[in-house]
Amino acid sequence: MWWNFVGRTQEEIxxxxxxxxxxxxxGEVKGYDGAPLRAPALPETPLKPRGRVR
Length: 54
Known about the structure:
By secondary structure, this protein is mainly alpha-helical. 24% of the residues lie in helices and 0% in strands. The model has no long low-confidence stretch (mean pLDDT 85). It comes from Streptomyces lacrimifluminis.
């Protein structure tokens, strides 16, 4: 898990972040008056999976 994105691979996290930035794939929060939060930049080092591998 990175920020609020869950993925099995670095590529899935990158895709989720891109989708969030574009406003696709994720719904909107009803009743929230502010602009959507921006996802922070990805770390420069690859994300490391944790836990057991299936």
